[in-house]
Amino acid sequence: PHRLALLVPFRERFEELLAFVPYMHSFLSKKRIRHHIFILNQVDHFRFNRASLINVGFLESGNDTDYIAMHDVDLLPLNEQLDYSFPEAGPFHVASPELHPLYHYKTYVGGILLLTKQHYELCNGMSNRFWGWGREDDEFYRRIKGAGLQVRRPTGITTGYETFQHLHDPAWRKRDQKRIAAQKQEQFKVDREGGLNNVRYRIESRTALSVAGAPCTVLNILLECDTSETPWCTFG
């Protein structure tokens, strides 16, 4: 039987985490999806790097899981018809543009995306060049296409933009959307060199936690940055 590694990139959003872990454990258990929740907690002093955290989560998720969900901590699925099963036919975008409360462009693959481990490796994971908020999933869409894979999306869901609860409060938690040095030009390029093969990191600690009775593993992750390659990884 298949087992899902739920990979949740994370930094300092504990109130969202306290809601997310028990909710997702209950949601997936009801659907009889075998799963393990990994909180990928970035504890270095560089800017947030969602894609690198997902690469690390993939590498650290162990051999007892055979597919992953890249899952935002602030997005909760409300419709039990949403499919989290093994995406054999190719990447399955749960938070599709027709359903996501905020992002509606047709090449969007952020929020919640399922892939078999084999397909993620075929894409060489995600680019490590995206520090700060945004754009890494747009680059990943091009990797998916380049690997000859087709993104599939939910059908028959009638709840529209009410399909998910979005927990993020922009007034309380501002996103790091600065564009530093050559970052603005770089963010539109496809990274043909990097990904799973060159993510640099150290695991500071690995802790099994229970949140309101729901189990998860917290990985405290120290990412490394080559400032000659991506000077925008620091706030400068």
TrEMBL record:
<dbReference type="InterPro" id="IPR003859">
    <property type="entry name" value="Galactosyl_T"/>
</dbReference>
<dbReference type="Pfam" id="PF02709">
    <property type="entry name" value="Glyco_transf_7C"/>
</dbReference>
<dbReference type="InterPro" id="IPR027995">
    <property type="entry name" value="Galactosyl_T_N"/>
</dbReference>
<feature type="domain" description="Galactosyltransferase C-terminal">
    <location>
        <begin position="91"/>
        <end position="166"/>
    </location>
</feature>
<feature type="domain" description="Galactosyltransferase N-terminal">
    <location>
        <begin position="2"/>
        <end position="84"/>
    </location>
</feature>
<dbReference type="GO" id="GO:0046872">
    <property type="term" value="F:metal ion binding"/>
</dbReference>
<dbReference type="GO" id="GO:0046525">
    <property type="term" value="F:xylosylprotein 4-beta-galactosyltransferase activity"/>
</dbReference>
<dbReference type="Pfam" id="PF13733">
    <property type="entry name" value="Glyco_transf_7N"/>
</dbReference>
<keyword id="KW-0333">Golgi apparatus</keyword>
<keyword id="KW-0328">Glycosyltransferase</keyword>
<comment type="function">
    <text>Required for the biosynthesis of the tetrasaccharide linkage region of proteoglycans, especially for small proteoglycans in skin fibroblasts.</text>
</comment>
<keyword id="KW-0479">Metal-binding</keyword>
<dbReference type="GO" id="GO:0030166">
    <property type="term" value="P:proteoglycan biosynthetic process"/>
</dbReference>
<dbReference type="GO" id="GO:0005975">
    <property type="term" value="P:carbohydrate metabolic process"/>
</dbReference>
<comment type="pathway">
    <text>Protein modification; protein glycosylation.</text>
</comment>
<keyword id="KW-1133">Transmembrane helix</keyword>
<keyword id="KW-0472">Membrane</keyword>
<keyword id="KW-0464">Manganese</keyword>
<dbReference type="InterPro" id="IPR029044">
    <property type="entry name" value="Nucleotide-diphossugar_trans"/>
</dbReference>
<dbReference type="GO" id="GO:0000139">
    <property type="term" value="C:Golgi membrane"/>
</dbReference>
<keyword id="KW-0808">Transferase</keyword>
<dbReference type="InterPro" id="IPR027791">
    <property type="entry name" value="Galactosyl_T_C"/>
</dbReference>
<keyword id="KW-0812">Transmembrane</keyword>
<comment type="similarity">
    <text>Belongs to the glycosyltransferase 7 family.</text>
</comment>
<keyword id="KW-0735">Signal-anchor</keyword>
<keyword id="KW-0325">Glycoprotein</keyword>
<dbReference type="GO" id="GO:0006024">
    <property type="term" value="P:glycosaminoglycan biosynthetic process"/>
</dbReference>
<protein>
    <recommendedName>
        <fullName>Beta-1,4-galactosyltransferase 7</fullName>
        <ecNumber>2.4.1.133</ecNumber>
    </recommendedName>
</protein>
